[in-house]
Amino acid sequence: MSIDQAAGGTAPPTSSTVVALSGGVGGAKLVLGLAGVVDPSTLTVIANTGDDFDHLGLRVCPDIDTLVYTLSGLSNPDQGWGRAGETDHVMEVARTLGEETWFFLGDKDLAMHITRSRRLAVGESLTSITLDICERLGVDSRILPMSNDFVSTLVETADGVLPFQHYFVRDRCEPLVKGFRFDGAETAIANPQVLNALSDNRLRAVVVAPSNPFISIDPILAVSEIRSTLDGTPAPVVAVSPIVGGDSIKGPTAKMMRELKIDVSPVEVARRYADFLDGFVLDVVDAQLAPQIEAFGIPVQTANTVMDSLEDRVMLARVVLEFSDALSRRAGDNSVTE
Amino acid sequence: MSIDQAAGGTAPPTSSTVVALSGGVGGAKLVLGLAGVVDPSTLTVIANTGDDFDHLGLRVCPDIDTLVYTLSGLSNPDQGWGRAGETDHVMEVARTLGEETWFFLGDKDLAMHITRSRRLAVGESLTSITLDICERLGVDSRILPMSNDFVSTLVETADGVLPFQHYFVRDRCEPLVKGFRFDGAETAIANPQVLNALSDNRLRAVVVAPSNPFISIDPILAVSEIRSTLDGTPAPVVAVSPIVGGDSIKGPTAKMMRELKIDVSPVEVARRYADFLDGFVLDVVDAQLAPQIEAFGIPVQTANTVMDSLEDRVMLARVVLEFSDALSRRAGDNSVTE
């Protein structure tokens, strides 16, 4: 958000919207909280699709699906990804037939990949397919792939360059990380609905979920039009730290930071996002780090960011939105006093 | 078989082979019987692929799969097609996601279509895929698609031209049949392994299974090189009647004959095959029709052709092969006395 925009002087929008940038499991928790705080139909989620890959010849979009299952209430609460009550009949036979089965796909989940692959093959866009699936599964929020073009996260490791899911699932994040590439991101056309959502005058907040900065948020930002539109978005951009107490709540963020010789600290996350960030939400256990982040010119809010229960998710979402609202007012005040 | 070939004068082959032409359920019964009578590794089955179609975006080959499941012992004995102990988890979700579900695919069966579709998409031939699947599922016989090219049976009906599975499964064979077309058959390249099998000097018999002449055997014959190779095959070609007592044992053969104004009689089946047939196996209940078939110059053998039990299948297979052997000897004798 720029000061100019915040001080735009137009009447306050009658119904506000919220946009979240999210990867999979960790991000989906906060997204579910947001959907519990605002009218879910006013919430748009920009999903990372850099993790997408073809498995058993089917297009799998892990982050989209985690968001869909989480928001539809179909998710497996124990693992955070996949569906509850899954069976493995297809996968068991696929193994017998010589298919690679290191990436598990449950029977119900497979129907998603089958229908998506069929529709992609006949030329329908990933956005159109995803929105239709959301509607059919009762998800009132919009889950939007960052692009309809295929972008593929590659992990540069000590063992060579690995496609993301090979690194993440097959090799269990064991290879030492040296860097990341987002194949196709440079030429990928940003999802027009994403750009519209980020430019919407009714926008109340853009929330960067506590997802992995390297493999969940960076691929979204690597689509250049999304990054530039984020700069001009009319609402505050607020990120929630994925690092709490010197470790990542979920997934390999901390391990990656160590291997990349980056301090495992929310400060470093805030530093990465500093160019476009209007506010940063820090866990209460890291409150002492606030001054270091504020030194970047980024206001800080502390909160309990560890989301164990649904109440935790809703509570954090409320704090994030109220913090964003405060940033809006402050920006407005600043412009008035300037 | 031509007389010349039968009298070829070369030493009898040390190990003989058998070829069967087959559609799905009905044909697979006799094929299973043949695999119980001869060394299964010497049996080659030429499968109709005119029924193949894409469902849920996956390539489904019903006749190949029925043969694979029957010979591997995985088939559902009650319905004759599909696998035993199936579940419907994928299909149930696919319905929720708006997919067409009038053609049921069980979860285990789906793994077959998924792996086949994946491998076809990367350029592997249907033959190579099918043979690999046979090996993995413990099928010792060779199941060969008639062609690696896509051939599509179309049913000309009073309601218009229908893709075969729409006619057969979706519309339950209700539309009045006027004729058939085999799209792609004219340009389809015959499977080279099929031509080799039909030309093999060790060949003992070519068995036309009691499959539907119009939609299971005719598509195979519509591949012109298969038809011409059948003319020159070194072994007797023996067909088993799919019509018993004025009706078809299985499927819509009799209904189609009525609608095409053809007598529902084994005589009419023999007439269709007359050009390439060396012998015809008639059910005992139709023994009185033998003279009409013999009038075409086709020797007739009667047998119990209704295969309820595995013993029935093996018994019929034995009769068919012994009949074929007798035709071989007779052809040899004829040439000697000429």
In summary, what is this structure?
Chain A is α/β, with parallel strands linked by helices.
Structure description:
2 copies of one chain form a homodimer. Chain A has 338 residues and is an alpha/beta fold. The first copy, chain A, has one domain (3-80, 110-152, 190-337): CofD-like domains (Rossmann fold), CATH 3.40.50. Chain A has 14 helices and 14 strands. Chain A has a 7-stranded parallel sheet, with helices on both faces. Chain A has a 3-stranded antiparallel sheet with strand order 7-6-8. In chain A, helix 5 crosses helix 6. The A-B interface holds A 56-58, 87, 89-94, 96-99, 107-108, 110-112, 114-115, 117-119, 121, 132-133, 136-137 and B 56-58, 87, 89-94, 96-99, 107-108, 110-112, 114-115, 117-119, 121, 132-133, 136-137.
